[in-house]
Amino acid sequence: MKYLLSSCLLLLGCLSCGSNVKNKDTREKIIDTTVENRTLTIKTGADNYDAYFSFLKDKKVGIVTNQTGILSTKTHLVDFLLEQHISVQKIYAPEHGFRGTADAGELIKDGKDTKTGLPIISLYGNNKKPKPEQLAGIDVLVFDLQDVGARFYTYISTLHYIMEACAENNLPLILLDRPNPNGGIVDGPILEKEFTSFVGMHSIPTLHGMTIGEYAHMINGEKWLKNGMQCTLTVIPCLNYQREMTYSLPIKPSPNLPNDQAINLYASLCLFEGTNVSSGRGTEKQFQIYGSPFLPKSDFSFTPVPNFGAKEPMHKDQLCYGEDLTTIPKAQQLELKWLIKAYQTTSDKSKFFNDFFTKLAGTKKLQQQIEAEISESEIRKSWENGLVVFKEIRKKYLIYK
Q1: In the prediction, which pLDDT does 192 show?
Q2: What are the DSSP calls for 361-396, one per residue?
């Protein structure tokens, strides 16, 4: 396993523009970290603290993080850095908030962390990119969020805006990498630019098969930031990690992804969020079941009720029929079979899709294909050329085998 770190960062303790992997002017040192023993414990970028302490010493630090920013000791990154006498000034929180308790799409307000007293700036709602005044007094930003490898999981959208803010305000960004729990799965339709939104900002497939650190390199290298800007980026890699390894998240990345099965099925079942079918919000099996009052009666049913992470779930207090996927084998691709089955058996096809579906799919074609009853295999063939092109681009930014 190899990763890239700018030699000038290591030798001089300063931050260089090592973020563009294609930049021939950037001096890079290849450090061999080949895994000799597959039983070694995976260390996240946050646990690889010897690689980033020097960048934070004597600096005023802002941290973009949430409940997933923990070390193997179960200590939160913010608390750990304060214990190490790092001068943390502000916390920047994405969707779901700093402690990860808010519903998807819920407005998060600025506030103060009750444990540390640090100010918390919300990066959701109308303030997705920190303003210059919100970055005032910060020398360096640290980014530590656990991604799940899906285009519409909004932490990579937050990453885009953080990188853009860093580029605009001449702030270096230190990204602490974490494994992608969906490994190297690359699948799904490529987002078409006219359907760009906060749930899909770049022309990538539904499942991108990269860690968030690799993805940051791609954002910079492909010049996806506004006006082709690039930020000064340093990715602190995971240690003892290879892409095919199984990685179970130590903490829920968001309120409605409670376990490994939900995380694996998330990309496939999230497409139901653009339909009149529930993906299990308002139950204890979020993104592991699906159903609606409009599907045929079956042996499996559930009734969504308000709960942690879903104050107003779809079909609240209504009996929904569908399927329980909690024990099926791990998906190795973006699965369309449940979506197609639900559409074909719903009581009124004209009411099945809503406007959000196109944003999630990143294209109008998928809905049109399903409505035209094109087979799943034919739909998948329509993605092939786009996936080939994406995989070639992706190769340039991979850190891990």
Answers
A1: 98
A2: HTSSHHHHHHHTT--HHHHHHTTHHHHHHHHHHHHT
Write b or e for each residue in 78-116: b if 16 or more Cβ atoms lie within 10 A of its Cβ, otherwise e. bbbbbeeebebbbbbbbbbbbebebbeebebeeeebeee
- Let me know the angle formed at the C-alpha of 42 by 38 and 47, rounded to the nearest 5 degrees: 150
Q: Tell me, what's the pLDDT at 96?
A: 55
Token reading at 198? 């906060």
> How big is the chain, counted in residues?
401
- 3-class DSSP state of 349: helix
- End-to-end, the C-alpha distance of the chain in Å comes to 6
Per-residue confidence (pLDDT) for residue 209, from 0 to 100: 98
Cα–Cα distance for residue pair 54/134, rounded to 1 Å: 24
Biggest distance spanned by C-alpha atoms of the chain: 67
Confidence at residue 98, expressed as pLDDT on a 0 to 100 scale:
75
Low pLDDT (below 50) residues in the chain: 1-37, 100-108
Q: How many CB atoms lie within 10 A of CB 229?
A: 14
pTM beyond 0.85, yes or no: yes
Beta bridge mates, 144: 65
Residue 9, phi then psi, degrees to nearest 5: -65, -45
Please list, in sequence order, all residues whose beta carbon lies within 8 angstroms of the beta carbon of residue 341, skipping any fewer than 6 positions away: none
Tokens standing for residue 363:
């294209």
- Rounded Cα distance between 140 and 250, Å, is 27
- Provide the b/e sequence for 234-273 (b: ≥16 CB within 10 Å): bbbbbbbbbbeeebebeebbbbbbbeebbbbbbbbbbbbb
- Sorted by sequence, the CB contacts under 8 Å of residue 375 that are 6+ apart come out as none
User: Which segments of 158-304 are extended strands (E)?
Assistant: 173-176, 186-187, 207-208, 233-236, 289-292, 301-302
For residue 165, the tally of other CB atoms under 10 A from its CB is 24
C-beta of residue 201 within 8 angstroms of C-beta of residue 150:
no
pLDDT for 61:
98
Non-local (6+) Cβ contacts of 361 within 8 A are: 189, 195, 206, 271, 274, 367
pLDDT at position 40 is: 83
Joined together, the tokens standing for residue 286 give 């979020």
- Kind and range of the H or E element at 144? strand 140-144
